[in-house]
Design goal:
alpha/beta; Nucleotidyltransferase, domain 5; 4 helices
C-alpha cells in the first residue's frame, strides 16, 4: 500500500510518496498553497492518481512536545482530508524534518535558490520515512511517536 506524506506550510505543501510496499519514502512534489478547499482537492488528486491507501500529515510539535496553533491547524486539515478522501489519515511528529532536509540538500551541493523549491518535499519524505520505519514489526517507538 502506498502512503502519502504531507508537510503543510502556509505558502507551500510538500508531498512525499512511499513505494508500493510502504517501506521507502521519496520526495514527490511541492504544491503552492491556494486556500484550504483547493489544497484539499489537489491532495485528493494526488491520492487518486497514485493509488494511495493512507495519508500521513506532519504534526508541527514544538521541541518541548507541545501543540500550538500550527498543530491545531494540521489536526483540522487532517480531519477535513479524511472526510473527503475515504482513506485513513493520521498525523506524525515532524520535529526537525525541515532542518534535516535543509542539511541534506546543502550536503548534496544544492544551491540556495533551488533548496527552497525542494526542501518541503524532502522534509515530507523525512517525516514519512520516520512514520514508515516506526510501523515495521518490532520497530522501537520513534522519538516523539505518533501524535494522533
Amino acid at each position: 500500500m502506498r502512503v502519502l506524506g504531507v508537510d503543510l506550510g502556509t505558502a507551500r505543501i510538500g508531498l512525499a510518496l512511499s513505494d508500493a510496499t510502504g517501506a521507502f519514502a521519496s520526495p514527490l512534489t511541492v504544491i503552492a498553497s491556494r486556500g484550504r478547499a483547493n489544497d484539499l482537492a489537489r491532495i485528493a488528486e494526488v491520492v487518486d492518481s497514485n493509488e494511495v491507501g493512507q495519508v500521513v500529515i506532519g504534526m508541527p510539535t514544538t521541541l518541548r512536545g507541545e501543540h500550538g496553533l500550527a498543530a491545531q491547524q494540521a489536526e483540522a486539515f487532517a480531519r477535513e482530508l479524511a472526510e473527503q478522501l475515504g482513506v485513513p489519515v493520521t498525523t506524525w511528529d515532524e520535529r526537525m524534518t525541515t532542518v534535516v532536509a535543509e542539511r541534506a540538500l546543502i550536503a548534496a551541493g544544492e544551491r540556495r535558490e533551488h533548496r527552497r523549491d525542494t526542501r518541503d518535499k524532502v522534509a515530507a519524505a523525512v517525516m514519512l520515512q520516520s512514520y514508515l520505519d516506526a510501523q515495521r514489526p518490532g520497530a522501537p517507538d520513534a522519538a516523539g511517536g505518533p501524535s494522533d
